[in-house]
């Protein structure tokens, strides 16, 4: 996506540069160039001089073609080329705008997905808080029930079998109250949704 946008941007910039320079557009008119190269250059010494120095010859040839183009040239040809390049420029510019809009849409979608993932992560953290709090309360309950449920003979335990039930009930109630306090504190601090 980024490479495609960069290529379209490069083509757009090149077309804009061509549209800004009339000399470059005149050089793009190939029919006129063909007509300029087929016409003989005056003087027989000029042709041998072109072959001796290709760099100077190409500069002189380019200058002579440009002069032929301006002498013979019709401004309508450049206008036609300019209209054609403007049409391409508009099409490329529209493509670049569509790619930019698509990139923004993709970025917005990524942001939305990240928000949804954050929401799910927060829900999992809340569930973990509930489970951890419940596990702590159950561990306390199991500790008390385990201590009083052992088969160790106590001298003060004889004849008081009903106390085990009350210890288990009181411990269960205490653990439920601790769990409620933890959840109330979490709601008060905003860790858990109301």
UniProtKB/TrEMBL annotation:
Keywords: Ion transport, Magnesium, Membrane, Transmembrane, Transmembrane helix, Transport. CDD domains: Mrs2_Mfm1p-like. It is a multi-pass membrane protein. One of its GO terms (molecular function) is magnesium ion transmembrane transporter activity. The keyword Coiled coil does not apply. Pfam families: CorA (PF01544). The chain crosses the membrane at residues 129-152, 164-186. Its main location: membrane. It comes from the Eukaryota. InterPro entries: CorA_TM1_TM2 (IPR045863), MgTranspt_CorA/ZnTranspt_ZntB (IPR002523), MRS2-like (IPR039204). GO terms for cellular component: membrane. It is found in: Membrane. Belongs to the CorA metal ion transporter (MIT) (TC 1.A.35.5) family. Magnesium transporter that may mediate the influx of magnesium. This is Magnesium transporter. It comes from Ilex paraguariensis. The lineage of its organism: Eukaryota, Viridiplantae, Streptophyta, Embryophyta, Tracheophyta.
């Amino acid at each position: 996506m980024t490479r495609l946008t960069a290529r379209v941007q490069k083509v757009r910039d090149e077309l804009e540069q061509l549209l800004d320079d009339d000399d470059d557009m005149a050089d793009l008119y190939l029919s006129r160039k063909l007509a300029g190269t087929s016409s003989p250059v005056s003087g027989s010494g000029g042709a041998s001089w072109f072959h001796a120095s290709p760099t100077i010859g190409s500069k002189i040839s380019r200058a002579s073609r440009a002069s032929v183009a301006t002498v013979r040239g019709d401004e309508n040809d450049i206008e036609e080329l300019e209209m054609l390049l403007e049409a391409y420029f508009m099409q490329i510019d529209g493509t670049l705008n569509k790619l930019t809009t698509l990139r923004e849409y993709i970025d917005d979608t990524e942001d939305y997905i990240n928000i949804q993932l954050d929401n799910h992560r927060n829900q999992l953290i809340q569930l973990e808080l509930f489970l951890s709090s419940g596990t702590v309360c159950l561990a306390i309950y199991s500790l008390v029930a385990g201590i009083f449920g052992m088969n160790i003979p106590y001298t003060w335990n004889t004849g008081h079998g009903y106390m085990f039930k009350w210890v288990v009930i009181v411990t269960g109630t205490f653990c439920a109250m601790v769990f409620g306090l933890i959840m109330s504190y979490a709601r008060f601090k905003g860790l858990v949704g109301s």
